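Long-time lurker, first post. I've been practising inverse folding by hand and with some scripts of my own, and I keep getting stuck on stretches where the structure tokens seem ambiguous. Below is the full token string for one chain I'm working on. Before anyone asks, I'm not after the true native sequence, just a reasonable design that respects the backbone. If someone could post their per-position residues I'd love to compare against what I wrote down in my notebook.
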């Protein structure tokens, strides 16, 4: 009997101790559980969606588009390429000469007015000439009248400095005059040009007829042994006709 009561008392004590343990641990566990908030499904889902998806799209797109369309500033603008300059040398050009007059030919009347003509000389880029002389010559006309030393013609050259007309040499012969016997000419630099003006008049005793009026550009600085082609680099002519007065 006593043994049964003792056993029952032990049982009661064990139960009381277990109850005390349960009572002491319960609030701490409840407090710990309460102090650690658990994310609710309603809060986590919008936050993840709003933070992840919108932040990636607007941030990447605006930053790339404006920078690509923005014009470079003056300081960052690339330098313009330097124009390519050809190093190819200029094509060689040579001396040229031509004569011109109204109507393309000299038509004179005995004792009449003079007719002007011009001789244009243009040098090339290959060399300069220290002395060039314009030599005029006609062949002897034997149609009518005596053979005169001047051919019955008067040649004048206009002085470019004063504008005055001065008598110029004109040879009347059927042969070629040596280049080294002509008077000294005037220099002509590379790519330089000049125009010489002349006028021709027929005297009362001039013979009538037609003949070429020869114009030769003579290099009077050429060596004496130079060929005629080398000493006379250019030639041209105008047709000359002398007629008697009408009536």
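-- Answer (accepted) --
I ran through it position by position. Result:
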């Amino acid at each position: 009997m006593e043994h049964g009561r003792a056993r029952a008392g032990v049982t009661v004590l064990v139960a009381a101790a277990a109850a005390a343990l349960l009572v002491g641990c319960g609030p701490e566990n409840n407090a710990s559980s309460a102090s650690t908030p658990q994310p609710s499904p309603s809060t986590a889902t919008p936050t993840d969606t709003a933070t992840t998806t919108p932040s990636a799209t607007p941030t990447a797109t605006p930053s790339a588009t404006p920078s690509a369309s923005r014009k470079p500033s003056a300081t960052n603008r690339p330098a313009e390429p330097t124009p390519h300059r050809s190093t190819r040398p200029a094509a060689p050009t040579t001396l040229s000469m031509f004569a011109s007059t109204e109507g393309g030919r000299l038509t004179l009347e005995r004792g009449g007015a003079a007719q002007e003509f011009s001789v244009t000389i243009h040098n090339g880029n290959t060399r300069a000439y220290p002395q060039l002389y314009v030599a005029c010559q006609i062949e002897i006309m034997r149609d009518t009248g005596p053979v005169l030393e001047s051919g019955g013609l008067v040649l004048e050259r206009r002085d470019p400095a004063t504008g005055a007309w001065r008598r110029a040499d004109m040879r009347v012969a059927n042969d070629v005059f040596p280049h080294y016997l002509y008077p000294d000419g005037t220099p002509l630099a590379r790519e330089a040009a000049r125009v010489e003006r002349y006028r021709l008049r027929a005297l009362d005793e001039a013979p009538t007829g037609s003949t070429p009026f020869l114009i030769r550009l003579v290099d009077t600085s050429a060596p004496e042994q130079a060929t005629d082609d080398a000493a006379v680099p250019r030639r041209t002519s105008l047709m000359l006709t002398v007629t008697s007065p009408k009536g």
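A couple of notes from the structure itself: DSSP finds three helices and eleven strands in the chain. The chain has a mean pLDDT of 78. Happy to go over any region you disagree with.
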